[in-house]
Amino acid sequence: MLRFYDALRAGDAGAFDEVVSPDAATVFIGSAPGDWITDREHLRAGFRPPGVRIEDTDPQAWTEGSIGWAADRPTMFFGGDPVRTRLTGVWRLEDGAWRMVHMHVSLGVPDREAAELQRGWDG
Fold first, then answer.
1. Residue 56 zone, left/alpha/beta (φ > 0; ψ -120 to 50; rest)
2. In this structure, are residues 100 and 91 in contact, taking their beta carbons and an 8 Å threshold?
3. pTM, full prediction
């Protein structure tokens, strides 16, 4: 997880293949309505400069065999604005390296407010 964060922060597109699995089932799910990304080049674009700024991390991680998972509550910066997020990731040991196969980023928004916001997106 920390290598993944470091590569994002640095805008290190070269590290993408080291930290993200090439498996076609790899998926990133973000908080925006269209953030369900499985296209490898779209995923890679997130690693290009300026990169996503991530701070205040304290990931917790676990493994069982060749599968690992992590959870964190990092602050991310999109366009300079801080956003407190919740992040989970699933990692698989591939050829001696841990690579992300699934990541989900969400925002802690009360259900009532989320429903109201979603009505605005759908309407």
1. left
2. yes
3. 0.85
Q: What is the pLDDT of residues 70-96, one digit of tens each?
A: 999 999 887 778 999 999 999 999 999
Peptide bond into 59 cis (omega under 30): no
**13, 17, 28, 81 alpha-carbon torsion, rounded to 10°:** -20
Written as one string, the DSSP assignment of 50-86 is T--EEES---EEEEETTEEEEEE--EEEETTEEEEEE
CATH pick for 2-122 out of 2.60.40.10, 3.10.450.50, 3.40.50.1860, 1.10.10.10: 3.10.450.50
**Where do the structural domains in the chain lie, given as residue ranges?**
2-122
Residue 85 pairs in a beta bridge with 107
Residue with tokens 């429903």: 115
